[in-house]
Design brief:
It comes from Takifugu bimaculatus. It is built from 3 helices and 16 strands. Among the domains are: 84 residues; 90 residues, Immunoglobulin-like, CATH 2.60.40.10; 83 residues, no CATH class. 14% of the residues are buried. The strands form 5 sheets. The protein has a 4-stranded antiparallel β-sheet with strand order 4-3-6-7, with no helix packed on it. It has 418 residues and is of the alpha+beta class. Strand 8 and strand 9 form a beta hairpin. It is elongated.
């Protein structure tokens, strides 16, 4: 009986644990549903606000443009009217002046005819002289109606049709962005962001990646890159800090950008690679990711190492040549296992390097493969992977991994700096 009770108790405990796990899983899914609902409602509200603001701006701008165009056309009508009426007004003034002279001449002629014989001769003589002076046979020319402007307005009624067609096709609504972030890989002091197109009917001409600190109030998204590539290494990031990333695309032949992808959170636990400070013969940049050899009088400068051994399997290490001076055949770039103080070259044991002429050295021995010479503006990338695994003793010591670094001489890629 006790065995049965113990069995039932154990079964009950297992069922309770299973119920707790089940409840926890359901609560997580409920949280996921709430997040999904929040995204749908939040994005819908944002879309409504964007539409209202955009069309309100369009209406205000269209009204302003139409008002300005109407004012300009009315000003043209006023200018044509003023320029055309002025000569008519001048002609009218001449005619009215002539009518006044004729009226005055008529009154004098009628008065001369009515006067007595004693003064009639003088009056008629004066009247005749004035009539000759006025030149009663000379009349001002009045322009014909066909010769004066007839102002009219020409309006293209098809504009309404074009406007109606343009408005009916302006704007679109999409339930999903055409691109989404596919992967976030941590790198030393940086994050490699990869994205992909999820809308097969969308033809992307270029992409736009942005990022910002997560949770920072007032923090705005910053452009990381704009181009045709589907990945980008975002540099100069603080380790153990969450960053939000989003991407959008511009369609072929379009000027506007698509909707942003769902923001993804990424962070790196790896500090940025830095050169070791205090190495004689070198000057470091403020971030310690650039080293400049400055002692030209010294016959040889020692090897400058990274500040800490932070290069591990699966990482990509890139050197970029930003400046170049006098080179030596022992000058080289590479990776090594130990930090030998005072060493003058990486062409030694426990190191893999590439010399300036493209020769590859492994453990101090030159290999048969040859890479292009390293020149100004070039980038040299090392990828490290496990190629063999074997125990070094039989006394339960940890297994030792043999590592091989392959040098891939790449040109034109963005250098991360080490």
């Amino acid at each position: 009986m006790s065995v049965e009770v113990d069995s039932l108790v154990q079964e009950a405990k297992e069922n309770i644990e299973a119920a707790q796990n089940y409840r926890s899983e359901l609560q997580q899914r409920l949280h996921g549903l709430n997040q999904a609902r929040k995204q749908v409602r939040g994005s819908s509200s944002q879309a409504r606000e964007t539409l209202r603001r955009h069309f309100s701006e369009l209406q205000a701008t269209a009204t302003q443009l139409l008002t300005e165009r109407l004012a300009a056309l009315l000003a043209e009508v006023d200018a044509v009217e003023a320029a055309s009426v002025k000569p008519l007004d001048d002609c009218q003034s001449i005619i009215e002046h002539g009518v006044g002279q004729a009226d005055e001449l008529l009154r004098e002629g009628e008065a001369a005819l009515r006067c007595g014989l004693g003064e009639k001769e003088d009056k008629l003589g004066s009247f005749t002289k004035k009539a000759m002076h006025i030149q009663l046979d000379s009349l001002p020319e009045v322009p014909a109606l066909v010769d004066v402007p007839s102002v009219s307005a020409q309006l293209d009624d098809s504009l309404l049709g074009v406007l109606r067609d343009w408005v009916s096709r302006h704007g679109s609504i999409s339930s999903h962005p055409p691109v989404q972030i596919d992967e976030l890989q941590e790198r030393p002091g940086s994050i490699l962001v990869r994205w992909c197109k999820v809308d097969e009917d969308f033809t992307a001409a270029e992409y736009r990646l942005q990022y910002r600190r997560s949770g920072s109030r007032g923090s705005q998204y910053e452009d990381a890159c704009i181009g045709r590539d589907c990945e980008f290494l975002v540099l100069h990031l603080d380790p153990h800090t969450d960053y939000l990333f989003r991407v959008c695309a511009r369609g072929e032949g379009r000027t506007e950008w698509s909707a942003w992808s769902t923001p993804q959170t990424g962070y790196t636990t790896l500090p940025a690679l830095e050169w070791c400070p205090g190495t004689e013969g070198y000057i470091l940049s403020s971030r310690r990711n650039m080293a400049l050899r400055n002692d030209a009088t010294q016959a040889r400068c020692p090897v400058i190492y990274s500040n800490t051994p932070t290069y591990f399997c699966g990482q990509t290490l890139t050197f970029k040549i930003a400046a170049a001076g006098q080179v030596d055949r022992r000058d080289s770039l590479g990776v090594c296992v130990d930090n030998q103080k005072g060493a003058e070259s990486l062409q030694r044991d426990q190191a893999v390097c590439i010399s300036t002429n493209g020769a590859v050295f492994v453990n101090g021995k030159e290999m048969t493969n040859q890479l292009p010479a390293i020149s100004l503006g070039a980038t040299v990338t090392f990828d490290m992977e496990v190629v063999n695994m074997f125990p070094v003793s039989s006394n339960n010591r940890p297994e030792r991994r043999q590592l091989q670094a392959e040098g891939d001489h790449r040109f034109g890629e963005p250098g991360g700096g080490v």
